[in-house]
Amino acid sequence: MSKVRWLLLVAFGTCMTLVLAPIVVIIAISFSPIDGFEFPPSGISLRWYASFLASDKLWGSMLFSFRTALTVAILSLILGTLAALALARSRGAAAAVMQSLFMAPMVFPAIILGLAILLFVRMVDTSPWLGLIAAHVLLGTPYCFRMVMGSLQAFDPALEEASQSLGAGPIRTFAYVVMPLIFPGMLAGALFAFIVSFGENNASLFLTSPGYSTIPIELLGFLQFPGNQLIVAAASTVQVGMVVVLIVLMERLVGLSRIVRSDSKS
Amino acid sequence: MTTTRAARSIDWARYLRRSVVLGVPLAFFVVCFLLPLFYLFIVSFFEPSQVELYEKRLTFNNYTRVFTDSFYLMIIARSLLASGIVLVISLLLAYPAAIVIAGFSLKWRFRILALLLFPLMVSNVVRAYGWISILGRRGVANTVLQDLGLIDAPLFLLYSFDAVVLGLLTILLPYMIISIANALAAIDRSYAEAAQSLGAGPWRSFWHVTLPLSSPGVASGCLIVFFLALSAYVTISLLGGPRFKLLVSLVYDTVVTFQWPRAAALSFILLLMAVAGGAVILALTRPQRVRRRRA
Fold first, then answer.
1. What is the ipTM of this complex?
2. Is B217 an interface residue toward A (CB < 8 Å)?
3. H/E/C letters for each residue in A175-201?
4. What pTM did the predictor assign?
5. Given an 8 Å threshold on Cβ–Cβ distance, is A98 in contact with B26?
6. How far is A112 from chain B (nearest CA, A)?
7. Is residue A68 part of a domain?
8. Which of B51, B62, B126, B222 to mutate to test the interface with A (most CBs of A within 10 A)?
9. Interface contacts (A, B; CB < 8 Å)
10. For B165-194, how does the pLDDT look when each residue is reduced to its tens digit (9 = 90+)?
């Protein structure tokens, strides 16, 4: 094997290690029987999972996160699909500007988004929970927009015209022709929005309050104090498991190729 | 006559429908994204207040104080340095990794990219905690090194510049790799073959053909990495500890102490840094060299 090829593989291995090591370690230590890490491990135990389930605070925020993410996924799906329907076949500067606007939250500093929405919530005097939903929907919509956009551009517009020329109105055309074709993209987008909302922790920093706290924010609180930290490992492993299930679901829906491309903003 | 009238009424219906379809998401983005940002911008020009969000007196102090205070200037320089280092390391690691991935069969390429995408879906808190359990005083690294007899006392690896860089690399490398690998995979192999058949060696054909053609992927990867490195508060605070501050930590600190106008000004300085850095990245990578093809 040539030296260049070898260097390339070393870089590849380093990348995979840097990216995956923290997650692998967390999964491994979440089964630790003691309060800490030991090597080699003296056994396997589920005690941290038990204390996770017993902690009303963590379990409560898990359920709150779940409800929030579900709401966010539905709203992001509606907004992202509408935006994609409006822009899929448009060209020109105005359409390009709007497309960038709908994609912007993906790269916009989330903590500043959280601050801006917090101030706005205070000015119009509404509940921070609405602000949290708004922030998460902003972060989830780009994924739905992009997924549905991809589905719309993949099918032949002649199908739509055929439906309309056969007498179907726009709403029937959407329900019977367009929607079945873009449905996998819509679902994948909604799953993305769900995952984003479930793991979000920078915009949420200022928008959560006691009783309205998402699981990443609650875990962050746990990490500020020493001791009992392995409960965080157990809770994290549960989250990792959920993400894996959702990604497998997306793979079934639209295939790996579309998922992987959807995240590169080229 | 009747047909034109019918056509016209259909046009009106279509116009109405289109404006609703576009109007709903647009209204949401204006009300929940652009308006709050505009309000934040306004607040940054007011005096702080003890009771209200701000005192109704215009001032530039929130900005001038930052640019005349050496503490703030040091933090700004350190933030740029940290983001710059993360950017360079991630580019140097990700480009070769992307070359390896682009060389895989289609099936394996997607599998590896999905494996890189999946950690992005896991909360930053979780991944920072992973590094805490590896680098902590009683963490994996110290335990293993001590058991092997390589060190006597635990090393202090956490709460440092290096730990922050490591943590940022973990969360940002996937963006860079996925972006470059997709760009590399899209390049028609016949270009490189043509260059080589015209007598260019593998290095020259890489430098003059492959590298420029991958510049859109490099540019978008660099932009995402730089933007997110500047603003990844949770990772920076968990791995940097309470004393290691970057600009985004100051944004957080001013918010939790209710110094709204100052927090707003710091936010816009952060955004300005992101935009300026983005312009430098675009000038260096020149992605516009490659005409975008519609997939």
1. 0.88
2. yes
3. HHHHHHHHHHHHHHHHHHHHHHHHHCC
4. 0.88
5. yes
6. 6
7. yes
8. B126
9. 274
10. 999 999 999 999 999 998 898 888 788 788
The string of pLDDT tens digits covering residues B21-52 is 899 999 999 999 999 999 999 999 998 887 77
Interface contact B277, partner A, CB < 8 A: no
pLDDT at A152 over 90: no
- Closest by alpha carbon to A239, among A10, A56, A58, A1? A58
Structure tokens at B129: 């905690």
Examine residue A85 and state whether it is found in any structural domain, yes or no.
yes
Residue A141 lies in a domain: yes
Contacts of residue B143 in chain A, CB cutoff 8 Å? 37-39
**Domains of chain B by start residue, with CATH:** 69-289 (1.10.3720.10)
Residues of B in contact with A85 (CB under 8 A): 21
Closest CA to A145 of A195, A182, A171: A182
**Region class of B173: left (phi > 0), else alpha (psi between -120 and 50), else beta:** alpha
What's the pLDDT tens digit per position in B110-142? Answer: 889 888 988 888 888 989 989 988 888 778 888
Contact A259/B117, CB-based, under 8 Å? yes
- Sequence-distant (≥ 6) Cβ neighbours of residue B132 within 8 angstroms: A223, B139, B158, B238, B239
* Domain count along chain A: 1
Q: Determine, yes or no, domain membership for A1.
A: no
CATH number at residue A161: 1.10.3720.10
